[in-house]
Amino acid sequence: MGGSLNIGKLAGIKVYVHWTFLILIAYIVFSGFSSGQQTIGIVYNILLVLSVFACVVLHELGHALAARRYGIGTRDITLLPIGGVASLENIPENPKQELVVAIAGPLVNVAIAAVLFGVITLFFDIALFAPENIEETLAHLNLHTFVTNLLMVNVMLVAFNAIPAFPMDGGRVLRALLALSMDRTKATRIAASIGQFIAILFVFAGLFYVKNPFLIFIGVFVYLGAMAEANAVATGAVLSGFTVRDALRTRYTLLDATNTLKEAVSELIAGADQDFIVTENGSIAGVLRRKELIKALAEHGQHAETTLIAPFIERNLPYLQPDDDIKEVYPMMQQNGFTLLPVLDQDGKLAGVLDLENLTEFVMIRSAIIENK
Questions:
Q1: Which of 12, 281, 348, 355 is deepest in the core (most CB within 10 A)?
Q2: Yes or no: domain 244-371 corresponds to CATH 1.20.1250.20
């Protein structure tokens, strides 16, 4: 993920911290000093936040290891101020497998909570954690309160993820259970509708009852997440059974790395292509995107007749095959920001290009055909 720092690996999976996570730490420090909190209290809060996010990483690792059991890899785990994201290569379509992967994360938090409760029972005065004493216990900064807070956070993580709404684990559990008795697309549509209804309740409660902006934010987050999941699965269903060959564009403009900016601009204006496949020494070098061409023109416009396009080419792009599953290629292009990719035949020759805009039109056309059946 862009703007993320690699902090290591867990079980062979890269773990990243997004730069915005530093804003959270800075906020804790700033709010602590602003309120006159002692340094020890600020350090305590930072350590607690770091411990909470360690639990979040383990939660995501639970998903990743469960997915690995079914041959599904995980690209990375990224920590954000609002939680963690395990970037699975794909979501299992088998409902039983999805159920296992979905519950694996919360089960990790259940295990952590059980261990912490055991620590409290064995090493601390359990009476301190009785309902009538818990407020006083939490008012002190010590190991007792640290363990108690961490226990409560893990319980809340389990409860939050149990909400039957995408993108929480509960939404995937609900879909998996529904998919045991119906097709996955319909199960997703029902689960997404339930999730959106819950999201509306959150927003309504946040506005008119508890008047909590965070609850409103959660409601919007859940609503958009449910909508995105429904759209993604619907698109996958539309593309099922099709290959790159079905959306291949065979009419395209080739540029060479020795072409100048002026020549590239002329092709941009004269034709319908927005991005161009570029060759170099007879081989495919990469893609020249329109936005990079315009940017280069803004910087080198006075020398457009002599400035070559070679430095502005996006290189090291993946090559597609005509028989590649378009259902897998489409989200890959979206996630990586690829607008144009070369398609090579069995002999390694350029058979055509796959254009993200054309591919989106292909999805729209297929959706319209299905709706009219």
A1: 355
A2: no
CA 365 to chain centre: 27
Instruction: Render pLDDT for 265-284 as a digit per residue (tens, 0 to 9).
Output: 898 888 778 889 898 888 88
Show Cβ contacts of residue 161 under 8 Å, excluding neighbours closer than 6 positions. 105, 106, 109, 168, 169, 170
Least confident of 117-131, 201-215, 350-364: 117-131
Given pLDDT bands bounded at 50, 70 and 90, which one contains residue 138?
A: very low
The model scores a pTM over 0.85:
no
User: What is the domain partition of the chain in residue ranges?
Assistant: 1-162, 164-239, 244-371
Distance, CA of 191 to CA of 94 (rounded, Å): 16
* Closest alpha carbon to 161 in 222, 75, 232, 231: 222
Task: Please count the other Cβ atoms lying within 10 Å of the Cβ belonging to residue 149.
Answer: 17
Q: How many residues does the chain have?
A: 373
Instruction: Characterize the bridge pairing of strands 350-355 and 340-344.
Output: antiparallel
